[in-house]
Amino acid sequence: MHRLVVRVAPEPTSVPVFPTYDLVRQFETMRLVAQHSDVAVPNALWVEADPTVLGGEFFVMERVDGQVPPDVLPYNFGSWVTEASDAERARLQRSAIGVLADLHAIPDASVTFELLAVPGDDRSALRAHVDATRDYYEWVAGDGYRHPLLEAGFDWLEAHWPDDEGPTVLSWGDARIGNMMFRDFEPVAVLDWEMAALAPPEVDLAWTIFLHRFFEDIAAQMELPGLPAMFRRAEVEATYAELSGYTPHHMDWHTAYAALRHGVVMARVQRRAVHYGQTEMPADPDDLVMHRATIEEMLAGTYWGRVGTD
Fold first, then answer.
1. What is the helix (H) or strand (E) element at residue 2, kind and residue range?
2. Domain 65-307: which CATH class?
3. CB neighbours (10 Å) of residue 107?
4. Quick one: pLDDT band at residue 235, thresholds 50, 70, 90?
5. Mind telling me the catalytic residues?
6. What's the confidence (pLDDT) of residue 2?
7. CA distances for 5 relative to 27, 65, 209, angstroms
């Protein structure tokens, strides 16, 4: 008996988070990762592009057993991660960073993963990535509710553009432990490839750092202890450099970009909540961005000075 999992693209009428999901591309990306690395991706078996079969594109993969750090409530609020020992959490953190180092070590990413690029596109990987994020924002704001804060963020990125963009690698996209399955604090499955792209290594690294900070800021607001010793920025950067041989650059810029990307996602997620009657549209659309204060501090250059990087 085979234990399988089916992933189906959401219907357009369900107010999806992203404009497209392209499960064929996700399926092929997973297969290529499996072929060119030792990263633990589930064995992707079949893909169907005809949406009439199950109501959307879908693919089938083998089921993997393990533990996933929860998002709701976040894993730093009280979960198997908070109940672990310091040594176990350190093992989880190092192994998660190792996943990024291994993904980014896949050679000739622009060729191997050419399906992630726009044919004939001569832009740099970082420029194409930011442009795609801006296009995503325009799609989110297509309902007429624009976000001055997010637009200021895009302006800030342009004004502080890195002078050295770094190498082009496979970027997992949604690089966080909530998209990994663990067994004995080691990754046994790397999941959710809808945000995969070509980008510099810092894009994934900053996303990993920021998403933990996002949960830590919520924990602090609720006067909960959280997990402040995990995924500290300086330690993550040092571990990545040790494991990959590449030293991350311009991480203030990249963590601000991560916060901005997440801001666009949250703006869409909150629109879904409004659509389904779970909340009301605020008078200030920027309030749809749960971490607007963090973005404001990052753009002002005060965030990391307040929370610390070490």
1. none
2. alpha beta
3. 9
4. very high
5. 174
6. 82
7. 13, 11, 29
